[in-house]
Amino acid sequence: MKIAIIGLGLIGGSLALEFSKNHTVFGIDNNQEHQQQALDLRLVSKIISFDKIDLMDVIVVAVPVDKTADVVFSILNKIPKNILVFDVGSTKENVCKKVKNHPKRNQFLATHPIAGTEFSGPKATVKNLFTDKVNIICEQSQTAKEKLELYQELMKPLQMRFVFMENASQHDKHIAYVSHLSHISSFMLGKTVLEIEKEEETIFNMAGSGFESTVRLAKSAPTTWTPIFIQNKKHILNALEEYIRNLQEFKRNIENKEQEKIYNTIKKTNKIKEILN
Amino acid sequence: MKIAIIGLGLIGGSLALEFSKNHTVFGIDNNQEHQQQALDLRLVSKIISFDKIDLMDVIVVAVPVDKTADVVFSILNKIPKNILVFDVGSTKENVCKKVKNHPKRNQFLATHPIAGTEFSGPKATVKNLFTDKVNIICEQSQTAKEKLELYQELMKPLQMRFVFMENASQHDKHIAYVSHLSHISSFMLGKTVLEIEKEEETIFNMAGSGFESTVRLAKSAPTTWTPIFIQNKKHILNALEEYIRNLQEFKRNIENKEQEKIYNTIKKTNKIKEILN
Predict the structure, then answer these.
(1) Interval B72-95 mean pLDDT
(2) Residue A211 pLDDT > 90
């Protein structure tokens, strides 16, 4: 098959790497440096322009989430009936709303492969990034059956675990708590420590004390995360409010040396162990 | 040498494991289950009672930090001049203050090996836990030169990187930001997500999205962390205040869709990459 990938970042580039084993992969990216890197790393066989997309079998949209809806919409405007389009963004409600009444809605599939690292760009591309990871599919009922089957066939070699979550808004709510809040807590932890620690050596020396893993996400790219935070504003603000409320309560408990309350809160939170193991 | 380790948890037990390669290690722990596990795992050759400590060459205090100062003080009261005592707790000011004027102060060394996992108890003991990790030594000027040398000789096979930080209060301040705040941010992230996510499956499915690494520390034991938070209250409250203030500002920026401010904050925080890599 002929596959075009729009956006050759960590996710787009890593998909290109996997697809190019069995298919011909073309790249579209308006960053010239990324174009060259993708060619050098042999992620794609050729860089093409947007007006060539109607020659493809599959089009992947892997751009920052503030661009996704418009890009998908203009692709649908342009392509013949045989082509499957899917996106891979971390928010799903916005793109689903935008194409809701498009006559070619059934050629589009909204997906969210939950995979990544804190790095970005074509050079961050990782082999087997998707193996055994979860892939959330939203509004599958709105996609033509044969297009969904084509997608599943295409993704089979990547060995992902499919989770179907019909309601895109529900996806965005859950991901705000489990993923986006994690990123904000990590960015703000990094910011707080950088502000107080003028001597970088101290951070480095003490990083092994838990800081390093908790602050890992604070290395993530602003180009990816700024649009996510703004687009998923409604759910993120709720999550942040709860998080700050919990922090303030815990702070009061430390202030008042409420040993039992602190102990019980930690003990209860340890439940996360059973869920994740 | 004969070494007694008081407190056979993750750190005490892992030290026992290392020391028993070259020395005879005795265990003291008032938890009978932990006593038996330490024997079964051959971490120690024998469990002894506290009144046998004056027969040792070295005594390690690896108890929760709210017990450390009293335990070290009563050891110093009891032991002859040849014995070295050191503790391994995550706070250093309290124990240093307590023994400040003790006539045997110079037999004591305040250490903080920065190593650990989110697990606890003798069963959590890990081989080579300390290799290449940082070991912070406070108030080394208050310890007899030959005792410090004995300590360094004893620790040599563990291959730790020594960092000398004379001022115990400075240690506690820095560790509040870099370590203790990380733990609180992680506990509260776990709490917030557990409260909103009644369906554990959703957490599990989305955990790969950054949550898993950020929440790792929320698995840590309440017996270890409750006394640390209370004992290092002063510095932790400052750190928490800054952290909450940063979260509130970031929340306002999302609320007002301040794209540029969000972008710049993330970009600036990415500096953590250079420091930790």
Answers:
(1) 98
(2) yes
Range of the domain at A106: 2-166
Report whether pLDDT(B277) > 80. Answer: no
**Partner B contacted by A239 (CB < 8 A):** yes
Mean pLDDT (whole number) for A151-169: 97
Considering only residues 130 to 149 of chain A, which have any Cβ-Cβ distance to chain B shorter than 8 Å? 133-134, 136
- Asked if B254 and A242 come within 8 Å (Cβ–Cβ), the reply is no
Same domain, B154 and B183: no
- Same domain for B158 and B198, yes or no, is no
Q: Which residue has the tokens 């020391």?
A: B19
pLDDT in tens, B29-54: 999 999 999 999 999 999 999 999 99
Instruction: Classify residue B39 by burial, with Cβ atoms within 10 Å: 0-12, 13-18, 19+.
Output: middle
- From A271's Cα to the closest Cα of chain B, the distance in A is 8
Determine whether the interchain pair A216/B220 forms a contact, defined as Cβ–Cβ distance below 8 Å.
no
Q: Last residue of a domain, which of A166, A196, A212?
A: A166
* Domain co-membership, A150 together with A212: no
Which of B117, B139, B166 finishes a domain? B166
